[in-house]
Design a protein that fits this description.
By secondary structure, this protein is α/β, with parallel strands linked by helices. The protein is built from 29 helices and 18 strands. Among the domains are: 316 residues, Rossmann fold (3-Layer(aba) Sandwich), CATH 3.40.50; 190 residues, P-loop containing nucleotide triphosphate hydrolases (Rossmann fold), CATH 3.40.50.300. An 11-stranded mixed beta sheet has the order 1-2-11-3-10-9-4-8-6-7-5. A 7-stranded mixed beta sheet has the order 14-15-13-16-17-12-18.
Length: 763
């Protein structure tokens, strides 16, 4: 509290212009920096008017030049006179700041614990995902790299073109100019029969098969696995072969590339329990079944990823698979390089088609920088056999500075649910991309994309590179030969911007617009035929099943090997975790088709539901709205009808949030419009709720019980009469099952009547 109060006192002491500059640029104007002024005086000395006039003519001209340069530089630091409109804007903004400070002070210690004194707003994730980028740290990066003696050719500050080209380390990390080291013993490591990598990449499709995959529907079979549960296999080319889970793992059958056979058991030991059998010291039960599917190069959709329980063991499993794929692919290229070098003159030329049109093979999409940091750490641990055989990792210091997180930056009194702490741990900046090049015993971070094997990026980071049609600076050729796409934590992208994922899927595995110096004699025929998408393996991990995620897996995954999806149904539902005595009324609305649901729901709400809550007795009504577009539509309607309401969304400033919470708690505002994305990013306790309306079922099923349990925070809760109303349609089957359970959801979907449920707090 003392630190924040001191910051507010410092802010009050600044002038309006200095405040405005601080808000816009995040730092004081250089004109007020005493260190900079002292440096200017030392760098640009000049004589006073009473200085000695006996110097030579040349010296005088030099001094005059120095004086003019010095004053010109000072003139650029001075603030130009502001227009009257800007002055008025400053005054209004300063008044708003004062109002905000007063409101925050009035909130007391409770608000300090929840808002974290304002630090929580530093990373405004919703703003990032809409295209508002984070503050550029190019100068800090450049200074750090100069200190390390590192190459800055791929730094964004050097222009968009240099991000995709290699300059200094081209020969060192180039696949074409390097050869397999004889002592490594990897030349013949991947020539064993049954190697999944060779079986998958060496398969030559025929045009009839490609046409078949494009036109015919898929056939599906189901199987029950011990750990994954209900698994669905689908394919077009051939009758689905039911894949069985391996009860025990044979290391030789995994076909792991050296040195992964040695490093993986040591690194994965943290997830293995003491009850594991001696023959099963490689994987947990979940990892074993997931890797069994990954290693067949089939597409995989696993919708039960949980950041609290199995998130890290899943991350380790797909990192092992991705790194194993890259090492095998690079070893094949380096081995063929050696064969071409040793080829005798005059001998018949042999085609060694072992590459794509561009070098990047694996694309990993993760939501935050912290996720990228953990992935790179897993790669390093997998490549380092022991302390004596450490790999050379370039730009490691820069990577740690840009992707790391200082624990002291976290607000001290911030109390949030465990799942929130697990998802938003570390650096949660969502605008980043980084290339990783791996060659034998070295790894290069910040490798230019066209010299990278693996690209780790956020959806927003990829969107800003790919760009939109008509933009001059855009590039997506590096996505042309992606052989493995990993989308982790897909549910979070629903809270960011799902359009970025769809935009990425439209630009992956397209023919490049430029050759980028590729040797076409080494390019696989599958790439030349533009069939890369039929060989791409897609691994999709999510915390829930959602129609938009299902659509990406069903419509954008074309792997000729087929698709595997885990399809378990919830038995109990999150309503069983509601801890308050509360009547739940589920009101069904009828829509002709899925496209008309939005308009039907709005009309049903204003005609049937809202009139019941207009009475002053039904005050303290919170309306939970998952979609931001529905929120805007309702807000405009409430304004038009002049209803007594307030609103909170992910873009509401801190002062507005405090004001809305206070008005709602005191009953000065009857309705509170509340978006799901605000709850996802902030998890505030909204006090004063007596009537709850779910305009649509929440995306995360546990949000239903969370919002209901917030009612316990209401003062005089014993004397209050609480209500909960939920709107749903037949197109909300998955969300409904996640809330009430599969059996009850089936009954509700068959019946067209409203359903009344009463939860006693013991269910």
């Amino acid at each position: 509290m003392g630190k924040r109060r001191a910051e507010r006192e410092l802010l009050r002491s600044l002038s309006k212009r200095r405040k405005r500059h601080l808000r816009e640029f995040g730092e004081e104007h250089p004109f007020y920096d005493p260190v900079l002024l002292l440096l200017l005086h030392s760098c640009f000395p000049f004589q006073s008017e009473n200085s000695d006039q006996s110097s030579s003519e040349s010296d005088s001209e030099t001094e005059v030049g120095q004086v003019s340069v010095y004053h010109k530089l000072l003139a650029t630091l001075k603030t130009s006179p502001e227009s009257e409109s800007e002055e008025e804007e400053d005054e209004s903004e300063s008044e708003e700041d004062g109002e905000s400070e007063a409101e925050m002070d009035s909130e007391g210690s409770e608000e300090t614990g929840e808002a974290g004194g304002g630090e929580e707003y530093k990373n405004d994730t919703p703003g990032h995902e809409e295209g508002i980028t984070a503050t550029d740290t190019a100068e800090q990066t450049l200074g750090q790299e100069e200190a390390d003696g590192a190459d800055t050719s791929c730094d964004p500050s050097h222009g968009a073109i240099e991000e995709f080209t290699d300059v200094k380390h081209e020969s060192e990390f180039s696949l074409e100019t390097n050869f397999m080291e004889e002592e490594s013993g990897d030349c013949n490591a991947d020539k064993r029969d049954g190697n999944p990598f060779k079986q998958h990449m060496d398969k030559e499709l025929e045009e009839k098969e490609v046409e078949k995959m494009s036109t015919l529907p898929k056939t599906s079979t189901q199987s029950k696995w011990p750990r994954l549960g209900q698994v669905t296999f689908s394919s077009t080319l051939e009758k689905c072969k039911t894949l069985k889970a391996d009860k025990e793992v044979d290391v030789k059958q995994l076909y792991l590339h050296k040195p992964l056979e040695t490093t993986w058991p040591k690194m994965n030991n943290q997830f293995l329990s003491s009850v594991n059998k001696p023959s099963d010291l490689f994987f947990t039960p979940l990892q074993r079944e997931l890797f069994c599917i990954m290693n067949t190069y089939q597409d995989l959709f696993y919708p039960e990823r949980n950041a609290l329980t199995n998130g890290e063991e899943i991350r380790h499993a797909y990192c092992l698979h991705a790194l194993n794929h890259v090492l095998k692919a690079n070893a094949q290229v380096l081995s063929n390089n050696a064969k071409r070098r040793d080829q005798k003159p005059g001998a018949d030329n042999v085609d060694y088609r072992d590459q794509g049109l561009t070098r990047p093979k694996v694309l990993m999409i993760v939501p935050f920088r912290e996720c990228a940091l953990r992935i790179v750490h897993v790669f390093i641990n997998l490549l380092e056999v022991n302390e004596k055989k450490k790999i050379d990792v370039s730009h490691k210091k820069r990577f740690k500075g840009e992707f790391g997180f200082d624990p002291e930056e976290k607000p001290p009194n911030l109390k949030r649910p465990e799942d929130y702490e697990a998802v938003f741990a570390g650096n949660i900046d969502d605008h980043f991309r980084i290339g990783v090049a791996i060659l034998q015993k070295s790894m290069r971070l910040y490798a230019p994309f066209y010299s990278s094997d693996i690209i780790i990026a956020s959806p927003l980071g990829m969107r800003t590179v790919i760009g939109a049609e008509g933009e001059k600076k855009r590039d997506f050729d590096f996505l042309s030969s992606i052989e493995m796409l990993i989308i982790d934590q897909a549910d979070i992208y629903l809270m960011q911007n799902w359009e970025h994922i769809l935009h990425l899927m439209k630009h992956i595995n397209l023919l490049p617009l430029d050759s980028h110096g590729v040797d076409f004699s080494r390019v696989r025929m599958l790439n030349l035929n533009n069939w890369s998408k039929y060989y791409r393996q897609t691994l999709l991990f999510s915390a829930l099943q959602d129609p938009q995620i299902n659509s990406v897996f069903n419509k954008h995954c074309f792997n000729y090997r087929g698709q595997v999806a885990v399809r378990n149904v919830p038995l109990s539902g999150s309503i069983s975790h509601v801890a308050v005595q509360l009547p739940h009324v589920f009101r069904r609305l009828e829509a002709e088709n899925i496209t008309s649901v939005i308009d039907t729901r709005f009309q049903f709400f204003i005609d049937k539901v809202l009139p019941e809550y207009r009475d002053a007795i039904m005050s303290h009504t919170l309306i939970y709205i998952p979609s931001y577009f529905d929120y805007v539509r309702l807000r405009n309607y409430f304004k038009k009808e002049q209803l007594n309401f307030t609103h909170i969304c992910e873009y509401t400033k801190k002062a507005g949030v405090c004001r809305a919470r206070r008005f709602f708690l005191k009953g000065e505002k009857q309705f509170l419009l509340f978006t799901e994305r605000f709850h996802f990013y902030k998890r505030y306790t909204i006090k004063g709720i007596r009537n709850l309306i779910f305009y649509e079922l929440p995306t995360y099923s546990h949000f239903y019980s969370e919002i209901c349990n917030i009612m316990k925070a209401t003062d005089n809760a014993a004397d209050a009469t609480w209500t909960c109303t939920v709107l749903y349609s037949k197109y909300d089957a998955q969300k409904l099952a996640a809330v009430v359970g599969i059996d009850r959801a089936a009954q509700m979907l068959q019946s067209k009547k409203n359903v009344h449920l009463f939860v006693t707090g013991e269910n």
